[in-house]
Design goal:
The complex is a heterodimer of chains A (268) and B (166). By secondary structure, chain A is an alpha+beta fold. Chain A is 33% helix and 24% strand. In chain A, the strands form four sheets. Chain A has a five-stranded antiparallel sheet with strand order 4-5-10-6-7. In chain A, strands 11-12-13-14 form a four-stranded antiparallel sheet, sandwiched between helices. A three-stranded parallel sheet of chain A has the order 1-3-2, with helices on one face. Chain B contains five helices and five strands. In chain B, helix 2 runs antiparallel to helix 5 and helix 3 packs across helix 5. Classes of the chains: A alpha+beta (268), B alpha+beta (166).
Chain lengths: 268, 166
C-alpha cells in the first residue's frame, strides 16, 4: 500500500466534512474491496475516512411499508435480522450468501452498492425491488443510481446514508457463484410488488446490473417458473471471461431466473 | 504515524503505528503473536482469522487502526494456561490438521460457528460455514469431524475425554 492519512469520524456529517477537506480522500466501509485494491497499488488514496464509528450509518428499521438499512450495516447483520427476514426474506437470503462468514462480518451494504461491482449481489436486489439510495444530499432511485461498471450517480463527496426497500415477500434470489471468489457468475433477483414485476441480473452484464424485460412480461402473465419456459436471454451484451463465456452466462440467466421465481413463489 | 490502543487476548495494548498497518501485521510484528498466519493475503484463505469484538474476521483485510478500542482474540487467547480450548483439543484428537498452517484460522472460525449456531452442528452447516477457510493438505474430513466434536465439547464446558489410542 502507498501511504495515506487515516481518519475515523463519529458521524456522517463529520465524514462528509473530512471528505471535502482532505485531498484525494476515499471512504472506507468494510474495506473488503478497497483494502485489497490498495494492497495491489491499484488505488492510492491520500486519505482514508473510516466510517466504522459512524453510529448514524448503522441499523435496520421498519418504517411502514419500507425496510430501511443503514449504509454501514454488515451483510451478517442483514442476514440475521428478524426485520429483514420478515419484510423481504429474499434480501436476508441474498446477504447470507455474499462471500464467506468472515467477509460478511465486515462487508457492508453501503460499500457494496457504492462500489457497484458488476458481479456483486446487492445491486440486483436494489434494482429489482425498486429501492431508494438515500445519501447525505439527496434520494436516488436504484434505476438512476447504478450507471455502469463500477460507476454510480454518486457525486464527489457524497455519502450513502441508507437504503430504503419497499417490503415484499414475493421475491427471490438465485445465484450461480464462482466457487473461488464467491461472486456471482450470474445472479437473478426477481420481485413482485402488486402487479409490478422486476427481474434484475447481476454478474452477467457488460455494463453491470440490468433488467430483463422479456422475462418480466412473461411473468406478468403468470408469476410462475413455467412462464419462463423456452425464454432465452441473448448473449449480446453479456460478459465473457475465463470463468464462463457469454453463451454460458446467457444460458445461466434463464436457469437462475427460474430458480429465483421458484423461491419467490415458495416452490424452491 | 498514529496512536492505537486495543485489547488483545484480554490485555490492553498501545502502540504507534503507520496507518497502513494491517491488523494481522500488528498482531504478528508488534505483539509477536505469530499464531495468526498470513496465507493468501487476499482475504480468501482464512489463515488470518481472529475474533474482532467477538466476530470472526480476516485480519489481513482489516486496518489495525480500524480496531481502535476493540477487543481482539487470537489463537493464543483460546487456551487456558496449559489446558487446550475444547476446540483445539478436538483438532488434536481428530487429527484435524496435517501441516498446521491453516489450523489457527480454522479453529478461530470453528469457535465463531459455535458462537453463532450453537453446539449441535451438522456436517452441511460446518462445511458451508468453513467456506472462508482453505486447507491445502488433508482435505476437510477430519477438520469437519473436529469442529463437530469441539462444538459439542464446548457445550459441556470441558475438554473432551482423551481416548486410549495414544
Amino acid at each position: 500500500m502507498y501511504a495515506f492519512t487515516y481518519h475515523r469520524p463519529a458521524t456522517a456529517r463529520q465524514a462528509a466534512s473530512l471528505l471535502a477537506k482532505k485531498e484525494d480522500a476515499k471512504l472506507l466501509a468494510g474495506g473488503h474491496t478497497l483494502l485489497p485494491t490498495m494492497k495491489q497499488r491499484l488505488a492510492s488514496p491520500g486519505a482514508l475516512v473510516d466510517l466504522s464509528s459512524c453510529a448514524d450509518l448503522k441499523g435496520i428499521t421498519r418504517k411502514g411499508r419500507n425496510l430501511v438499512i443503514g449504509a454501514m450495516t454488515t451483510h451478517a447483520e442483514v442476514a440475521a435480522s428478524p426485520e429483514v427476514q420478515e419484510a423481504i426474506p429474499a434480501l436476508a437470503y441474498l446477504a447470507s450468501h455474499i462471500g464467506d462468514p468472515h467477509v460478511r462480518h465486515r462487508g457492508t451494504i453501503g460499500g457494496s452498492v457504492a462500489n457497484n461491482d458488476p458481479a456483486a449481489d446487492y445491486p440486483a436486489a436494489l434494482l429489482a425491488l425498486g429501492a431508494t439510495v438515500v445519501t447525505n444530499k439527496r434520494k436516488l432511485a436504484a434505476e438512476e443510481f447504478f450507471s455502469g461498471l463500477y460507476e454510480t450517480a454518486l457525486d464527489e463527496g457524497e455519502i450513502i446514508v441508507k437504503v430504503s426497500f419497499p417490503a415484499t415477500s414475493k421475491a427471490g434470489y438465485a445465484k450461480f457463484r464462482n466457487p473461488a471468489s464467491r461472486y456471482a457468475l450470474v445472479g437473478v433477483f426477481v420481485a413482485k410488488r402488486g402487479s409490478e414485476i422486476a427481474v434484475a441480473i447481476t454478474g452477467a452484464g457488460e455494463g453491470g446490473v440490468f433488467r430483463w424485460p422479456e422475462a418480466e412480461a412473461a411473468l406478468k402473465a403468470r408469476f410462475a417458473g413455467k412462464s419462463l419456459d423456452g425464454l432465452k436471454h441473448t448473449a449480446k451484451g453479456i460478459n465473457g471471461d475465463i470463468h464462463a463465456d457469454a453463451e454460458y452466462r446467457a444460458h445461466l440467466i434463464g436457469v437462475m431466473a427460474k430458480q429465483a421465481v421458484a423461491q419467490a413463489t415458495g416452490k424452491a | 504515524m498514529a496512536n492505537l490502543s486495543m485489547t488483545v487476548n484480554g490485555k490492553s495494548v498501545t502502540a504507534t503505528v503507520d496507518p497502513r498497518t494491517l491488523l494481522v501485521q500488528f498482531l504478528r510484528e508488534n505483539l509477536r503473536l505469530t499464531g495468526t498466519h498470513v496465507g493468501c493475503d487476499t482475504s480468501q484463505c482464512g489463515a488470518c482469522v481472529v475474533h474482532l469484538d467477538g466476530k470472526a474476521v480476516k485480519a489481513c483485510t482489516t486496518l489495525a487502526l480500524s480496531c481502535e478500542g476493540a477487543s481482539v482474540t487470537t489463537i493464543e487467547g483460546l487456551a487456558n494456561g496449559g489446558t487446550l480450548h475444547p476446540m483445539q483439543e478436538a483438532f488434536r484428537e481428530h487429527h484435524g490438521l496435517q501441516c498446521g498452517f491453516c489450523t489457527p484460522g480454522m479453529i478461530m472460525s470453528a469457535v465463531d460457528i459455535v458462537n453463532r449456531r450453537g453446539n449441535s452442528l451438522d456436517e452441511k452447516t460446518i462445511r458451508e460455514d468453513l467456506d472462508g477457510n482453505i486447507c491445502r493438505c488433508t482435505g476437510y474430513h477430519n477438520i469437519v469431524k473436529a469442529v463437530a466434536a469441539g462444538a459439542e465439547a464446548m457445550g459441556k464446558g470441558a475438554a473432551p475425554v482423551r481416548q486410549a489410542a495414544e
